[in-house]
TrEMBL record, chain A:
Protein name: Cytochrome c oxidase assembly protein CtaG
Keyword Transport: no
Species this chain originates from: Catenovulum sediminis
Superkingdom assignment: Bacteria
Role this protein plays: Exerts its effect at some terminal stage of cytochrome c oxidase synthesis, probably by being involved in the insertion of the copper B into subunit I.
TM segment ranges: 20-38
Membrane topology: Single-pass type II membrane protein
UniProt key word Lipoprotein: no
UniProt-annotated location(s): Cell inner membrane
Stated family: Belongs to the COX11/CtaG family.
Keyword terms of this UniProt record: Copper, Membrane, Signal-anchor, Transmembrane, Transmembrane helix
UniProtKB/TrEMBL annotation, chain B:
Biological pathway: Energy metabolism; oxidative phosphorylation
The protein's name in its UniProt record: Cytochrome c oxidase subunit 1
PANTHER family assigned: CYTOCHROME C OXIDASE SUBUNIT 1
Keyword field: Cell membrane, Copper, Electron transport, Heme, Iron, Membrane, Metal-binding, Respiratory chain, Translocase, Transmembrane, Transmembrane helix, Transport
Membrane-protein topology: Multi-pass membrane protein
Domain Cytochrome oxidase subunit I profile: residue ranges: 28-533
Amino acid sequence: MLKRDSNAQQKANNKIVARLALVVVCMFAFGFALVPLYDVFCDLTGLNGRSIQRADAGLTADDLTQVDNNRKVKLEFVSFSKAGHQWRFSALEPVVRVHPGEMQNVRFTIENTSSETAFVQAIPSVSPGQAGLYLHKTECFCFEQQKIEGKQKVEFVMRFYLDSALPKDISQMTLAYTLYAVDGNTTARVN
Amino acid sequence: MTTVTTANESATPQEHEHHGPEKGIKRWLYTTNHKDIGSLYLWFAFIMFLTGGAMAMVIRAELFQPGLQIVEPHFFNQMTTVHGLIMVFGAVMPAFTGLANWMIPMMIGAPDMALPRMNNLSFWILPFAFAILLASLFVEGGGPAFGWTFYAPLSTTYSGDSTALFVFSVHIMGISSIMGAINVIVTIWNMRAPGMTWMKMPLFVWTWFITAFLLIAVMPVLAGAVTMVLTDKFFGTSFFDAAGGGDPVMFQHIFWFFGHPEVYIMILPAFGIISTIVPTFSRKKLFGYASMVYATASIALLSFVVWAHHMFTTGMPVYAELFFMYCTMLISVPTGVKVFNWVATMWKGAISYEVPMMFSVAFIILFTFGGFSGLMLAITPVDFQYHDTYFVVAHFHYVLVTGAIFSLIAATYYWLPKWTGVMYDIGLAKAHFWCSLISVNVLFFPMHFVGLAGMPRRIPDYSVQFADWNQIISLGGFAFGLSQFIFLALLIKACRKQGEPVDAKVWDGAEGLEWEVESPAPYHTFTKPPKID
Ligand code: HEM
Ligand SMILES: [Cu+2]
């Protein structure tokens, strides 16, 4: 409501302005806070393939004996390299069918057709998103940056198994790798 | 709702040392008067509406026939982008702010806005923002071409250097609307005349109050998003770059966290306008006043938990898709309450169809169309088909053009006699209504068909099977564009005071404090608060 004297009015106005300005500042900060929150959310839920860019520690023999022989899951491997580079990145076994719980090796090659040494980092992504939680890798070239000499072709092995707790409705999944150059700007982070 | 028992103060000016406006350009540059600033906002918005409209004409000319004939694809992309940015941030939002400036103090019995100098600033930075945005079209490499949604990596990796100008201008627009919103909240909170309790406030005031909170909640998030785009593009951060541990999908989450509340920022004040006009010309009280207030508040709250309905095809887990689908559908409940209340207000009313009422009835019907297509889009599995097609374009033009813009036109026809003191040319107004109504449907309705058939949005060429409908759409577009010149002519005539002088109470069924002051509204009103009971 309107105040009688204009000083009191001024004071009352300033109080609300200060509070609203605080809300504005907080919401600006919240916009940036969404970035780490998004990471935490993806880590917790396994969405977005965050969890598959690191080796699974604490692997017990138990995990591997529980092979679920009753079903097979189809896994497709897709490989891209970022446009504008002279790399050939391919999956040697583009499709494999595995029993959950069974350890499997697949091979990838990266060929550097230029004459300069390349430093690259592969970033994985898995779909459907929730399948990421059930894909366990013990060895992967995507855990580290890789150095590929000029005119060289390198073969990498990726070792993984699927958790036998993988939901029954997931019978097919795709693991996509994108190969990026590592330079000053892309301080590729490995979780 | 409210009645005034004492005559308004400005009728006896000798008691105060009132001075009228200064003369010439200085009046407009230095003004802190809410009516002057309101007029500035409204004219600015109208000029931007015509500018953005000209770009739409370029788009429709290119799409008149399949194949590329008039403009380069890159220029076409700049047109769709800048058209969207100008219409959202340059036309609709400033026009509502202009109405807020003109009407809110008069509706609550306040002498002016609470923060008049900030008011001047928040208007005067806007022309600079849009000058920068428009200038960016002429720099080397062209202006922004990544869509008004500026998705990464389009805006980070694949954009031109003018992206810096885009970011800067969006920052200025954001600062302007945040200041405008703060002003509205403080005014409504602190400056109501004694007796103007919360639940006596006109609905236009209520809806703007809630809109202002949405603005201060999400405009800073937009500012954050453009800042991240800027640093990703120019300073080597990788918020949205997977190579550096970022994620382009996260851009969409941040953008739509702003973007969905933003669409309600553009429609809630429209709900307030329609809730004011319909009772006037139905000569009845608004049906369900309290439920209107609560419906507005619940729409505003729900708008924060539906953003990912713009992202159904990004590969979210099915539980998330279901969550966002149901929340989105839930919003149509309070929206339906509003439509029901408007219709119930008209029910058995002594309705007369003056021009503001014609636009309001068109709003109710056509906005509801837009709501229905929105509901269709909210159904996750079918959105995979509709997403990024002309069906979405049809949806948001029904809610924004026949929704937000029609409400703005209705508001202008409703309050213009109060602003100028003369009745506008009703013949022109009716011509404007019928031309707009017919052409807008010829323009947007067939977009549903080509969209369902698979025509993608934001592409300068299309398969020949869509040729016939696109020709009709373009003709509707040109007709709608031309119809707005009738409006321009009418406005110029009215501002030159050509027309019959009107009484204080222009419409016999109208209620509210703004009708207690004479027409044209004096430069200063309610310097002494009115008594309300
Ligand atoms: C019943 C109410 C509504 C529902 C259920 C609804 C639902 C949706 C959905 C699901 C989409 C995404 C479609 C897609 O991209 O595949 C969408 C897009 C859109 N809606 Fe609505 N909507 C509603 C009301 C509104 C209102 C009131 C406005 C603005 C005044 C609005 C403006 C927009 C805009 C601008 C877009 C497109 C954004 C873009 O991609 O550029 N909608 N709507
Ligand atoms: Cu939305």
